[in-house]
Amino acid sequence: MDGLDEIRSQAREERSGTHIHPQFMPMSDLTLSFSVKSRSRRCVNGPLQEAARRRLWALENEDQEVRALFKDLSARLVGIQSQKAQFLITFKTVEEIWKFSTYLNLGYVSACLEHLLFDHKYWLNCRLVEDTEIQVSVDEKHLETIYLGLLIQEGHFFCRAVCSVAQPPEKEGEYLTLWKKELISVKIVEGGSEWEGVSLVTGQRGLVPVSALEPLPLPFHQWFLKNYPGSCGFSRKRDWTGSYQIGRGKCKAWKEYEREEKDELNFHQGESIEIIGFVIPGLQWFIGKSTRSGEVGFVPTRNIDPESYSPMNKSSAFFSDEERCSLWVLGRDRKAECASFLHTLAHTDIASVYRLSGFESIQNLPNDLSASQPEGFKEARTGRAWEEHQAVGSRQSSSSEDSSLEEEELLSAASDSYHLPEPDDLDDPELLVDLNTGQEEEEAENFAPMLAFLDHKGYADHFRSLYDSSFSFLTSSFYSFSEEDELVAYLEASRKWAKRNHMTWAHARLCFLLGRLSVRRVKLSQARVYFEEAMYILDGAFEDLSLVAALYINLAAIYLRQRLRHKGSALLEKAGALLACLPDRESSTKNELDVVAYVLRQGIVAGSCVLEARACFLAIRLLLDLGRHEEILPFAERLHLLSGHPPDLDAVATILSFLYDKKYLPHLAVASVQQRGTQSAQGMSLPIWQVYLVLQNTAKLLGVPSLSWGEVSALACPALRQALVACEEQASRSTQRALCLILSKVHLQHRSPDGAIHYLSQALVLGQLLGEQEAFESSLCLAWAYLVASQAKKALDILEPLLYSQKETESITQKGVVHNLLGLALQGEGRVNRAAKNYLRALNRAQEMGNVRNQAVTLANLGHLTLKSWARQPAKDYLLRAVRLYSELQTSVETDMESVQVLLWLAQVLVSGRQLASGRLCYEMALLLGLRHRHLKSQLQVTKSLCHFYSSVSPNPEACITYHEHWLALAQQLRDREMEGRLLESLGQLYRNLNTARSLRRSLTCIKESLRIFIDLGVKDKAAEAWLGAGRLHYLMQEDDLVELYLQAAIQKALKSEEPSLALKLYEEAGDVFFNGTRHRHRAVEYYRAGAVPLARRMKAVRTELRVFNKLTELQISLEGYEKALEFATLAARLSTVIGDQKQELVAFHRLATVYYSLSMYEMAEDCYLKTLSLCPPWLQSPKEALYYAKVYYRLGRLTFYQLKDAHDATEYFWLALAAAVLLGDQELQDTIRSRLDNVCRSPLWHSSPSGRSSERARWLSGGGLAL
């Protein structure tokens, strides 16, 4: 590993005078990259990758959600690089990097990124979810470097010796002697080439050269050794214990062994040995039976041929299905409760409550959670019943010889009470002891029952209560003792009689029981004496393997507690073998965790993953039994990483999902369930209680309070579908139907009726198998889904046979429900008369039953039907009656949301009848109902209507702004960024229209916020327009130094988008900013002439080019740049003839005439004016045309008289202008023209020339001559 090589190289540098400091370890940020892959095609899913990248882009500026996610993943977000699909993260502690690397290796980081980056459309698509995975990648070397740097910062960690180290003779006692691969606890010493070390094998302290050390690379090992301190064994002999698989069956000895202790087995080379239990690499011993002599004893692992036994097919921490199933205990007791919850969630009122036309909000799905809230959604902590574990024990006591021990650690072995049930509750054999007999006499016959019971050679089922960790023998075999001291005295006396009569097994079991009671009373030294006596008595006998295992493990636990290294090293190794190698063994002491920790340390020393996994499982099972759930998580995560095949993964994932839920880590809880599905074999099913857990945690992710659930997150769909598979396998039709109804609810909730129809079709088939009522309800649900999907014909195909089948039923309400749905279906088919008849029948049924709500719904449906038929007055009457009935009902979310829809229809009728005040009142009442229940979707619908009302129907800028602001707040709560951007853009326009300094500033704020959103969403055209809008506002606010900056940014954004039409539009609009203003108008020329015109010509957008040249002409005229104006006007006139649009041509030539007039080119001006008149219709069609004729002829008259000095032609023009004015009926204009005529006729010019000279002047254009 490169990071470790770096440590060693730094250590070598230290030896030459360079010291290690934490700052020398690089602590830069870690880059986390992701890509969205298709499993089937084994390549990147392009559309999804782009969607994920755009979602990430939107989160770049508002990254609170991302920060919260990475906080759950135990990392700190530094930044987001959406273009590269990357996150920058960092870590501050070893624990953070340990947790994150664990989640990364478990696949939870990928799953959590799916939660973040994909919307409901993805989660509703079953096939897409199954085919898609997010692959994440990090620089492993860099991650390792950060980890090592954090270790050194902490200054205390664990290392492995990379080579043997001997003490220098000159410094004997100061340095630590090490063997290769020995574990050492290290503390950094600043400024030296040696660190302080403590051997975990010998416990000795001393200095260790840094070059001989290698930090343990796995953070779990560091955490475990720090939190579960203790010694560990170490084999200095070369053996194979760390490299082979777990084995069973028979094996051969490849080396002779002569036992050193009586509990060990003698065997010869080549002898066949039967393995009792399993042999696990990493352990020095296993239990074997000689096929030659039949003896049982411990066998040294290194003396057998590892190729001779039968390896397990797959390395597993579980030796039996019973062990694997022991991890499922958490959910078993909640199965009934969770199934009940699912049925409550799926409960439908569709068979009794009418449905409203066009009302497709979430309340319309078969769902009635308001009446009966599921227990699981209450604020009580999840899994409380799973965690209840009552300890049993006695009063605390301690002998003087144990007073030096840490009593707080030992109190877990003691209990708070000594409960003795009645004899009728007992199943174990009873020891009939006469308590009235004086025990001081110690007569043998008084102890005969006890001794006979306990002196059985070998194991019997009734001994099970003697060995378990719950001390159940106190309440079964020895229930007749009311005081524990009395029982101890009796057992002690029995021990003496057993010893006197040489009753080996009775003696050993009595010593064992006395030792256990001593542990219970926290007298560990006394207990040790009893256990050692029992082992001495057994003298290596293995007939009762349960007793032997319990003895070794209890004694080993005491040795570890009392730190008796010199006395218990061999026993610890053998106790570890008994603990780990025997399948289905029950725990015999609460202190067994110390022995499990010792075994796990052995696995770390030997590098045996299988032993480490086995120890993690044993730790999990024991902690579950002890109710110490908060300590399980690290062991469960490590076991999951070490587990190799689906059954093991499923078992561990079950534990993990429960623990993540308990720690309030909703992303991880859901991810653990989802990963369980992706890693399992095909056909994997999900337990009901895990679906319940997913529903809870997806609600937490939605931010929905537990007591007010109205929505089911689409994120729960994969778990619901997996649970559906489980119900199909188990033929649980009722739960299967409930799951189908919930899935259909989610699909309808997210406007995906096709998915709802799929699941409701299954629900219908299941309902027909379950019963008549279930079939009826499922049929109604399916018909309603077809109506929502606008498939009225298919709804009719279901409802018409259903109505026929209801003729024989006595349920009036059910008939009314069917008639109401039939009315909706017929209305969708356009069959208005039949629809109205069915509504009226439904109304009659509701009136018969006195059901006010159903009456209100039917009247509203009738009102909506007549409204769509343009029968305004009947619609108004029906809807008013419906509103009155709704006002009589008790307030609830469902009825008030229906009232909102009815009030909207009524407002529509009133506004169309110009009853604006009443219509506005209906809108505002509807909004108040939405506000009362904080129902965002209904508020959104009403607010849209109010904005339209105040902008178009009854204009009121202030009110329109107010409701747009509320609409914006709703969009923010719904997290609809696209809607938010559009609304900010609209608000900016509304504020700009007010044209006050304050409103312009507010408009600028809105536009800039919309710009940020559009940039985040990657909507380039909207972003470019927002840049331009901001520039326009800076111009209006006279902040001229910023105007060009924003306009250029807008144009550059458009050019980069490679959309020429957008760039052309923005060039023109940027010029319009100056063209329509009063300052710096000349700047428009640059945008028009250098920007818009070349683009228009390239795109052959002739009309746009014409429009720009017209603006350039007008601009130059206003700036008195007549020569330029003539150029632009001529080009505009030429383009107008190309287009062939007479109106455009008229405008162009009129503007050209104006330019000629301004340049004193009067004959050309006259010709252009006449050209414009030739483009007008031959007869006047409107007052506007008459006014145009009058004005143009009047101007021609003045031009001819004053500039061209032709009185007669001027008179003709004035007469034509007067004729147009007469047709127009403008008396004032007529008087003005007559006055001009009089002046012309009385002028000397009239008398000096006998006739006009118009024939002498050029007529190139108006005469149809040469074109421009």
Draw up the topology in text.
Layout: H1 2-15, E1 30-38, E2 43-44, H2 46-59, H3 64-72, E3 76-81, E4 86-90, H4 94-106, H5 108-117, H6 120-124, H7 126-131, E5 132-137, H8 140-154, E6 156-161, E7 183-187, E8 194-199, E9 205-209, E10 213-215, H9 219-227, E11 247-248, E12 250-252, E13 272-276, E14 285-290, E15 296-300, E16 310-311, H10 321-325, H11 329-332, H12 335-345, H13 384-387, H14 407-410, H15 444-454, H16 464-467, H17 484-500, H18 504-520, H19 524-538, H20 545-562, H21 565-581, H22 592-606, H23 609-626, H24 633-642, H25 646-662, H26 666-679, H27 688-702, H28 717-730, H29 733-749, H30 753-770, H31 772-788, H32 792-805, H33 812-828, H34 832-849, H35 852-868, H36 872-888, H37 893-912, H38 916-932, H39 936-953, H40 957-973, H41 977-994, H42 997-1017, H43 1020-1036, H44 1040-1056, H45 1060-1075, H46 1084-1099, H47 1102-1118, H48 1122-1139, H49 1142-1158, H50 1162-1174, H51 1183-1203, H52 1207-1224, H53 1227-1241, H54 1244-1248
Domain SH3: 154-218, 246-309
Region (Disordered): 367-412, 1246-1268
Pfam families: SH3_1 (PF00018), SH3_2 (PF07653)
